[in-house]
Amino acid sequence: MKGTHAEMKERILSAGRDVLLDHGYKGVTTDAIAKRARVSKKTLYDAFPSKDILMEEILTSLLKWSMDRWDEILSGPEGAIDKVRILLSFMTEHLPQLQERIFSQVEEFDPVLWSRIDALRSARLKRMKELIVETQEKGFVRSDLDPDLWLAFLIAIANTVVNPKGLMTARTSSRKLASTIGIVFYEGILTEKGRAAVAQEEEK
């Protein structure tokens, strides 16, 4: 299959991301990636000299997509309280799948790579905490809320509930369940002033 070296690498990385999301970190093989990318094993190894290098680039590119979306939301034109809502929706919809199929397995099998991933993830969670503090100072969010505990509860519940077993128990879709979790964690922290501001924004 023709294409520049850069195009071929991106084709293989894209296939690798799909295989990774379908089968998890432990289930990825170079055979599966080559088949999904419709390239030979020789072409795959011409682009990536070893499976370790390939896996690191696949994970880095997948993480970059996630982090780019975080940064896009954080730098958007919305106010702090609306950014919290958008981030909640993104977290509850995508975090559980990444955590269950990828992050937890990377942490077990490649601690060095995990430390880099965790540092990037922690930086974004810190920014979300800062948004919560900002909304508290403006009176939109309850002052008795502990941002660190709130984030810990959110991540734990999202990871526990938005997965195949949780979906079977709830008998609903992952999108609907994620939306419900977002509503509970978003609306439950708002003050009367915060609810009024959200209602006013929704009327526009």
Short description:
The protein is mainly α and 204 residues long. It contains ten helices and no strands.
Describe the structure.
This protein has 204 residues and is an all-alpha fold. It folds into 2 domains: 1-49, Homeodomain-like (Arc Repressor Mutant, subunit A), CATH 1.10.10; 60-203, Orthogonal Bundle (Tetracycline Repressor, domain 2), CATH 1.10.357.10. Helices cover 80% and strands 0% of the residues. It has 10 helices and no strands. Helix 4 (51-74) packs antiparallel against helix 5 and helix 5 (80-109) crosses helix 9 (174-187). The longest helix has 30 residues, at 80-109. The chain starts with a helix and ends with a helix. The mean pLDDT is 81.
**Shape, please?**
elongated
Quaternary state of this entry equals single chain
* Fourth CATH level, the homologous superfamily of the largest domain: Tetracycline Repressor, domain 2
| Beta-strand segment tally | 0
Helices, by number, come to: 10
Q: Helicity, in percent?
A: over 70%
CATH class of the largest domain: Mainly Alpha
**How many domain units?**
2
CATH topology of the largest domain: Tetracycline Repressor, domain 2
Helix-strand string: HHHHHHHHHH
Terminal CA distance reads: 50 Å
Q: What percent of residues are in strands? A: under 5%
Q: Which ranges are low-confidence, i.e. pLDDT below 50, for 5 or more consecutive residues?
A: none
CATH architecture of the largest domain: Orthogonal Bundle
Radius of gyration: 20 Å
The biggest sheet, with number of strands, parallel, antiparallel or mixed sense and barrel status, is:
none
Class per helix and strand makeup: mainly alpha
